[in-house]
Amino acid sequence: MSFNNLDTLYRQVIMDHYKNPRNKGSLDGENISIDMNNPTCGDRIQLQLKIEDGKVSAVKFDGEGCSISMSSASMMTQAIKGQTVETALKLSKIFSDIMQSKEYDDTIDLGDIEALQGVSKFPARIKCATLAWKAMEKGIHSQEQ
């Protein structure tokens, strides 16, 4: 597949997650709730996690922001739901490495998350893409304390 076709496909995946977000809403019952924002552009997210027996048993988000921010949140929730806490944190590390154009463990299937690779070329947008991931890390670490 040519670069232009791949770029078009990635844009379509990002816009699909933006227009049809997965796991958007709120969780019932007791959960970990994290509110974060990106003051430079106004993106904001509320992430809710349920962690049971060392796994992310449920995850939802709500918020407002650009297509990159909201798509990334949608993709992240899909990627970590049902995963162990360790795997969720590993995925976050891989995503951070991708955003910083670093080498990363490419043996793990990232699914739709790969569509966000191009964001690394736009430093001002990296904070948009990583907002939900930072919220997830903060939530997991808050439970560990």
From TrEMBL:
Highest rank taxon of the organism: Bacteria
Domain NIF system FeS cluster assembly NifU N-terminal: 10-128
Coiled-coil residue windows: none
CDD domains to which the protein is assigned, alphabetical: IscU_like
A Pfam entry, by short name: NifU_N
NCBIfam families: SUF_scaf_2
The protein's name: SUF system NifU family Fe-S cluster assembly protein
